[in-house]
Amino acid sequence: MEYLTCNNMTTQEAFYSYIVRLGDDSLILGQRLSEWCGHGPVLEEDIALTNISLDLIGQTNNLYELAVLRENQGKNIDQLAFLRLEKEYENLLLVEQPNVDFGYTIVRQFFFDVYRKLVFEALCNSSDERLAGIAEKSLKETKYHLKHSSEWVIRLGDGTEESHRRVQEAVNTLWKFTDELFFQDEVDQNVIELGLGVDNSNFKATWNSHVEHVLTEATLTIPSNSWQHAGGRKGIHTEHFGYLLSEMQYMQRAYPNMEW
Predict the structure, then answer these.
(1) Is there a domain that residue 112 lies in?
(2) Averaged pLDDT, 22-41
(3) CA-based, 20 to 30 A from 140: which of 4, 6, 38, 162?
(4) Domain span at 163
């Protein structure tokens, strides 16, 4: 996988970037969810959110291991996770948004879960057998994540006046980060052409339909404002990301090369 693609990027480089982006999404959202450990609204949700966080970190581990294997430049997964600069992370802006409250956390998770389920379903057919295997395993976890977040969106949206108001505010705030779910550039184009990655545009309509169905059941509305944020896939982040990164990287920065 070393020949040049049409954009003077080798297949190896494109595939590495593609896998790291998937891992970055899982890592950053897993870090966000870990902030709920010990602070959940009820014990069951404290445990549930922590377990989902662990699932995402496990996905990160598998994806980063594949990335360093395919790049073959002597890196390790700790370097990818903890020792890059802010601009070198290319996660979706959605996953780095702060928790704010339980409603925000659930809406953020729901938007991502619908998207991620579709991604993993498609990646089960990747021409890279190891990535297909990771997708198949991760899909089982993601189906549970989606069931959990969907049920909570409905419960909060169609609950009390206060819960409805808060979760609608979350939808209004986080909606402007959803268009980036379907961002594509030369990295995506290259892996799509070779059957390694997936064409997100193929399931944008499915994502919209599923989200609209759940929000309708929850008596919530999609914002009419169509303005959208972007930049995460290019390493341009929101103001929240630096704070998250400084906490996440503290141990590796303070004690270089430490291992668990």
Answers:
(1) yes
(2) 88
(3) 38
(4) 11-223+230-254
